Amino acid sequence: MEHFLITLGRGPVWDPERSRRSQNGWDEHAAFMDDLVRRGVVLLGGPLGDDVDAGLALVVVRASDAAAAADALVADPWHDSVLVTERVDRWTLWLGAPGASSTR
Predict the structure, then answer these.
(1) pTM score, two decimals?
(2) Is the model's pLDDT at 72 over the cut of 90?
(3) Integer CA distances (angstroms), 46 to 32, 50, 54, in order
(4) Count of CB atoms within 10 A of residue 59's CB?
(5) Which band of pLDDT confidence, cut at 50, 70 and 90, is reported for residue 95?
(6) Cα separation of 99 and 48, whole Å?
(7) Less Cβ around it within 10 Å: N or C end of the chain?
(8) Alpha-carbon distance 83 to 61, whole Å?
(9) What are the angstrom distances between the C-alpha of 64 and each of 54, 58, 82?
(10) What's the pLDDT tens digit per position in 19-66?
(11) C-alpha torsion 24→27→31→37, nearest 10
C-alpha cells in the first residue's frame, strides 16, 4: 500500500456564511470519514491554515494507487458537493513515528 495526499477544496454547495462543521450534511460526512479512519484507509485529515472554516483540507489516504485513493472518497456525502477533490498526490513517506511504514 502507498500513501496519497488528497487536497480538498470548497465545492459548489459550500455555504461561505456557515462554518465547516455547520455545512449541510456535516454529521454524515464526519461519520463517513470516521469509518475510513477505523478501517485504516484515512490516516490523517483536516483543514489547512489558521482558519479551519476557510480554504483547503488535506487527507492522507493509504491505497494501492492514486485512482483507489480518490475512489475512497467517492461515497462521502460531501463528495463533489460541499467538497471537491483538487489534487491526489503520491506521498513517499521517508520519516515517521515508530511503527509507521517507510520506503527507505
Answers:
(1) 0.90
(2) yes
(3) 14, 11, 12
(4) 25
(5) confident
(6) 26
(7) C
(8) 16
(9) 31, 19, 26
(10) 999 999 999 999 999 999 999 999 999 999 999 998 899 999 999 999
(11) 80
- Write a three-state SS string for 9-73: EECCCCCCCCCHHHCCCHHHHHHHHHHHHHCCCEEEEEECCCCCCCCCEEEEEEECCHHHHHHCC
Q: Which residues of 21-56 are buried (b: 16+ CB within 10 A; e: fewer)?
A: eebeebeebeebbeebeeeebbeeeeeeeeeeeeee
Specify the DSSP element, H or E, that contains 91: strand 83-91
Instruction: Give the start-to-end residue ranges of the domains of the chain.
Output: 2-88
Residue 83's H or E segment, with its range, is strand 83-91
Instruction: Please report, for residues 57, 71, 94, 95, 99, the alpha-carbon distance to residue 76 in angstroms, rounded to integers and kept in the order given.
Output: 14, 10, 29, 30, 29
Q: Extract the C-alpha cell encoding 62.
A: 493509504
Q: Which three cell numbers stand for residue 13?
A: 454547495
Specify the pLDDT at position 45. 97
